[in-house]
Amino acid sequence: MSQSVHGTTKAREKVLVVVVEIRQKVIPWSAEDIRREMEELVFASGGEFVDSIVCRIDKPTASSLIGQGKVEEIANFCMNNPIDTVIFSQDLKGSQQRNLEEVIKKKTIDRTQLILDIFAKRATSPEGKMQVELAQLEYLLPRLVGQGIELSRLGGGIGTSGPGETKLEVDRRRIAVRIALLRSGLKEVATDAALKRKKRKDQGVPLVSLVGYTNAGKSTLLNTLTDAHQVTKDGLFTTLDSLSRQLTLSNHQKIVLSDTVGFMHELPHHLIAAFRATLEEVQEADLLLHVLDVSHPQFRQYYDSVIDVLKELRAFDKPTIYVLNKIDKLEDVHWLKNFQENFDHCVSISAKTGKNIDGLLTKISELLSPGFVEINVEVPIARMDLVHLAHKEGEVLSIKYYNDRINIRASVPISLVGKFNVS
Questions:
Q1: Which of 45, 91, 230, 387 is the 20 to 30 Å CA partner of 247?
Q2: Are 365 and 383 found together in one domain?
């Protein structure tokens, strides 16, 4: 991989991907689908995909996950080709990983380690770094052998970025202490986030959360709607740290748009647990925007994967707008009409070009409008603050001034109605 971050430039690690297909495990993903996504993950980590080997097994073996014949085939391939790292699509137990490395003679990791490595590279905020380190240590702890493990290995390349950038012997006790410290820090983060959400709710500002498969275009949509200037590029997990921005709709209703980490199929449980504080934004949202990259050939599988994660987060039943993104990449858009009929609320857009963004904003207003009510009240002439409040937080329909009173007719958040009940 490229290590320019350390001041030097090295050739990218050359990777062999081992796609493990368990015949007894029925999934909607073909071996080719898995290979393609693994290749994208390798690229996102800074590695160079060289080739792949497919292993079809009836059930995993205790010693090496796959059969001995396939292990030797992989070893021979690595001997005859410039391979630095072998990555398995299925999770490996610590003993399986060690046994495979003894035969293959190359660094051997699994998909979860690869994803954790990408997250370690992409985390920029203190909160994000804490969440990634927690996930990595919880993954590492059951894989320790003997009294300790040299975490310097965690600083060298694919599947190795993270907390151990210096050569230290770290035993189970020290890792457990560090995990407890990280959990405590993230608990404080969650408490602060809960206080902010309570303040927002008290002000009657709805939370709209962007969810979707990684690289579906959520950050681009956030930028288009709010001028957030979030960094975007084509690749998996380019956005890791959560970001929230305020947006005022055409009816003067204020909302908060929140973007967070993208989902993917079989997202490692270590990540879901570690990112619980961040993902609570999804759980607490008043409305979800489920962004789908309809130009991707696997977008239906991606949809199912996001639904699985939402169910795990207990956020599946929330009001949802399905945002069919990247229609600018489609040669034929007619089939979208039939697809949209499967959902109550569905909008086709291009976040990149801005096509039909107004239609999306209208749909958001429609679904959030029950939070607004129309008032027709008279307040003392001295209460100009209420006139200002109606303009600021709602949509003023009419204002009439009399000698000693003001008549206000406006659409305002339900939470603010009581403020206008003055004599």
A1: 387
A2: no
